[in-house]
Amino acid sequence: MNQDGILLESLAFRDRLMTMIAAFCAMRPGEIFGLLWSSWRGDHFQIEGTAWRGTLRPGKAKTKGSKAPVIIPDVLLPVLKMWREQNANASAEALIFPSEKGTPMRPENWLRRRVKPVANALKISGPVNFQVLRRTFATNAQVFGSPKDVQTHLRHSDIATTLNEYTQAVPESVRRLVNAVANDVMEDPRPGPMLLRRVQ
Which CATH class is domain 3-126? Predict the structure, then answer.
């Protein structure tokens, strides 16, 4: 199991769910801490507002495009359902992850108190924060989908932001790409002047 998996397995249930949303839904911290139960629409979250410094801001988002649906991966749905069962009395307009006072938690406090101590105890190398989780998703996702798919999930208005600021080259992915193209050309049975022939 990699460091990400080890960290997730070591967190308390609620903190694990929140970290999974940050890692797989690649949401901004203000969006996560501003989630209401009404924001959960089965297989996706609908961004209806954000939280900022412990205050809920209904209708506010970083950009107009940020209010798009956010796909929830299948692996996350059972965990989210369990959390809803534990909070069955919460109204649709209640926060999914409220503070003890019922207000939005501050992301930096949650990281400092709930996640970083666990990461430090596990000797996890590298920073653990929302920006790293979001950018790690973007880098890993390019192996499985198109740049447009990644941009859509991150809800960037400009694909250049996704490509130039959020994704890094994955050497092994580049190698697979090069080999796949080469093998496709070499094994293509269709005749044509551009088809390379194996040396006999």
Answer: mainly alpha
